[in-house]
Amino acid sequence: MQREYRLKRRNDFRRVFQAGQSFANRQFVVIAYGRSSSGPPRIGISVSKRVGNAVVRNRYKRLVKEITRHWISCLKPGTDYVIIARNSVVEMNYKQVKSSLFHVFHKGKFFVSKPSL
């Protein structure tokens, strides 16, 4: 994922957590916050230590980054998203993770146009 699409700063994460709107399913929680400034959508990813060791957590971060990289042009501009992976994500493969994330993003009406599955 390119630098302009990443949510990195602690203050940005805090703002999304405090003022954002959340949507969830059994595997993911997605919190969205519309910034006052326009610009590209930015995405931050969080995986709890309860999910597994560092190798497992980083694997799911990479999966989510790859999926959202393909969807970035379909997301609402000027919005920050934080994606939180839950414990049940461990048993899932790439296709299932993609389907589950699509479900949450669709539920939250975050897409401007429909992404390819």
UniProtKB/TrEMBL annotation:
Its EC number is 3.1.26.5. It catalyses: Endonucleolytic cleavage of RNA, removing 5'-extranucleotides from tRNA precursor. Pfam families: Ribonuclease_P. Keywords: Endonuclease, Hydrolase, Nuclease, RNA-binding, tRNA processing. One of its GO terms (biological process) is tRNA 5'-leader removal. One of its GO terms (cellular component) is ribonuclease P complex. SUPFAM superfamilies: Ribosomal protein S5 domain 2-like. InterPro entries: Ribosomal_Su5_D2-typ_SF, Ribsml_uS5_D2-typ_fold_subgr, RNase_P. One of its GO terms (molecular function) is tRNA binding. It comes from the Bacteria. RNaseP catalyzes the removal of the 5'-leader sequence from pre-tRNA to produce the mature 5'-terminus. It can also cleave other RNA substrates such as 4.5S RNA. The protein component plays an auxiliary but essential role in vivo by binding to the 5'-leader sequence and broadening the substrate specificity of the ribozyme. PANTHER family: RIBONUCLEASE P PROTEIN COMPONENT (PTHR33992). Belongs to the RnpA family. Consists of a catalytic RNA component (M1 or rnpB) and a protein subunit. NCBIfam families: rnpA. This is Ribonuclease P protein component. It comes from Thermoactinomyces mirandus. The gene is rnpA.
